[in-house]
Amino acid sequence: MPKASEARALARREEIVDACAQLYEAKPFKEITLGEIGAKTSFTRTSIYNYFRTKEEIFLALLEREYAAWTADLDALAAPDAAAFPAAFAALLERRRRMLKLLAMNLYDMEAGSRIEALVQFKRAYHASMQAVERCLHRHFPRCTAEDAQQFIYAFYPFLFGVYPYTEATEKQREAMDAAGVPYRSYSVGAIAAALVEKLVRGFC
Q1: What is d(CA 190, CA 155) in angstroms, rounded to the nearest whole number?
Q2: pLDDT averaged per 10 residues in sequence order, the chain, 205 residues
Q3: I need a surface site. Which of 48, 66, 103, 106 has the fewest CB within 10 A?
Q4: How far apart are CA 29 and CA 16, in angstroms?
Q5: How many angstroms separate the CA atoms of 180 and 174, rounded?
C-alpha cells in the first residue's frame, strides 16, 4: 500500500476511534451503535467496515490506544525519590479514566466480538503496559527483583478492572445505596491507587 494510502487509512481509523470516544463520554457501551459512530465521521458509515468489523473492535482499539498512552506516561515517569513514587504512579492512572471505564465493562464480551488480529494487536499494547510498569519499578527501586515486579503486576492489574465503579458512582447508584443504607464515601482513582501502590512497594523500597 502506498504511503499516502497508509496515512489516509490510519487517519480514518483514528477518526472512527475518536468518534467512539466522544460518544462514550455521554452514553454507555450498549447504547452506542455503529451508525452513530459512522455519523460522527467525515465519510460514509459503510466505510467503517473497511477498518472495523464490529463495534467491539472499535472499543478494543480505543482501549488499546488508552494503554499505549498510559505506557508512554509510565516510561516518562521520573519521581524524585522512591517515597514519592506511589503518588506519582497513581497520578498517571488518574489521567487514564477512560481506560479504567473501559476496563470496568465486560472485557470478555469486547474480545469475543473482535477478530483475532484485532485482539492480538490489543494484547500487544496490554503487554507493553506491563513491561513499562516493570521498567518503572526497576528504575525507582533497585532492590526490586523480577519476582517482586511480577507479584506487583499480578496484584495491581486485577485492581485496574474494578477501581472505576468505586470512584464514579452514578446518581442512580447513590440513590440505591442510600435506600439500602450503604454508606458512600467519595475517593479519587489517585487516592485509592496510591494507597495500594504504597503497600505493594513496601517490601522492596
Answers
A1: 17
A2: 76 96 94 93 87 96 97 91 92 95 91 95 97 95 94 96 90 92 90 95 80
A3: 106
A4: 15
A5: 10
